[in-house]
Write a structure and sequence with these properties.
single chain, alpha+beta, YacF-like, 4-stranded antiparallel β-sheet, 8 helices, 8 strands
C-alpha cells in the first residue's frame, strides 16, 4: 500500500494553538521515556515551550468554550437515523469529563511550571544560542546526571500539571480531523482553489498526497476561501509550483 503525507492548515487561531500544543506534547512524549541526557534536554525544551503557550490567559477559557460548542453540535446529531448512538454518547461523555478536568484546574494552566525556579532558569538561558551549556546551568548539568528513573519521576510530576490540556487538545483535534472524510480532487497545473461554506465553521484544511508524488502542499486560507499550491522541490533551494495536474485527497474539517 502506498504511503501518504498529510499537510494541515488551521483556519483560525484556536486551531493553530491546539496544533502547536499537540506537536509539543508529541515531542515531549517521544523524548521523555528515553534515558540519554540529550533526550531529557529535548523533552525539557518541549515542556518549556508548552508552558510559554499556556501563559496566555485565555487558553483555558477557549478550550472549555470549544468543548461546550462541540458538545452542543454533536448533541444535535442524536436524533439522526444513521448515527452510532453508543459512540456518540462516548464522545459526549469524554467532552464532559475533559471540560470538568480543565475547570478543576485552579488559576492559569501550567502556572506551577512557570513558578519553578529551576525551569525558569533553563528557559531564560535557552534564549541564548548555546545557553544551556554546563557552565551556564550547573543545576541542569547535575539534574541530567541523575539516574534516569529519578528524572522520570520529576517529568511525571511536570506532565501531570498539564495532563488536562494534553487530553483536551487530543480530543478536540481528533473530532476536528474526523468531522469529515477525505475526498478525491484534482489541481490544475499544481493549483487548487475552493470557496468555503458560509454557514459553517471550518477549522482546518487537510491535504493527503502519496509519497511518490514528490511534492509538498502550500495551503493558505481564510474565512471565505482557501487555495493550495503543489510545490516541486527537485531544486531544494528554489522550489517551484509544479505544472502537472495533481490528483490528491482533500478533507475540509467543519464542526
Amino acid at each position: 500500500m502506498s504511503e501518504h503525507i498529510i499537510f494541515e492548515q488551521p483556519l483560525n487561531e484556536k486551531c493553530r494553538t491546539m496544533l502547536r500544543l499537540a506537536h509539543l506534547f508529541e515531542q515531549f512524549d517521544y523524548h521523555m521515556p528515553c534515558s540519554t541526557p540529550w533526550h531529557a534536554r529535548a523533552a525539557l525544551r518541549a515542556l518549556l515551550d508548552i508552558s510559554v503557550i499556556l501563559a496566555r490567559a485565555d487558553i483555558k477559557s477557549e478550550l472549555i468554550k470549544e468543548m461546550e460548542r462541540y458538545h452542543g453540535s454533536l448533541s444535535r446529531m442524536a436524533d439522526l437515523p444513521d448515527v452510532d448512538h453508543n459512540r456518540l454518547q462516548h464522545i459526549l461523555q469524554n467532552l464532559r469529563d475533559n471540560q470538568q478536568a480543565l475547570q478543576a484546574v485552579r488559576g492559569q494552566l501550567g502556572a506551577s511550571l512557570r513558578s519553578s525556579d529551576f525551569l525558569n532558569s533553563v528557559l531564560q538561558r535557552s534564549a541564548i544560542p548555546g545557553g544551556g551549556f554546563d557552565f551556564d546551568l550547573p543545576q541542569l548539568h547535575y539534574w541530567l546526571a541523575l539516574p534516569h528513573a529519578e528524572r522520570l519521576l520529576q517529568f511525571d510530576d511536570w506532565r501531570n500539571e498539564v495532563a488536562p490540556v494534553h487530553e483536551a487538545v487530543d480530543l478536540l483535534l481528533g473530532l476536528i480531523r474526523h468531522s469529515t472524510t477525505f475526498q478525491p480532487q484534482q489541481a490544475s497545473a499544481g493549483f487548487y482553489q475552493q470557496t468555503l461554506p458560509g454557514n459553517a465553521a471550518t477549522q482546518m484544511i487537510r491535504v493527503r498526497l502519496p509519497e511518490e508524488a514528490r511534492l509538498y502542499a502550500e495551503i493558505s486560507g481564510g474565512k471565505h476561501r482557501f487555495s493550495i499550491r503543489f510545490m516541486d522541490s527537485s531544486d531544494w533551494e528554489h522550489p517551484v509550483q509544479t505544472v502537472r495536474n495533481i490528483t490528491f485527497e482533500l478533507n475540509i474539517c467543519i464542526i
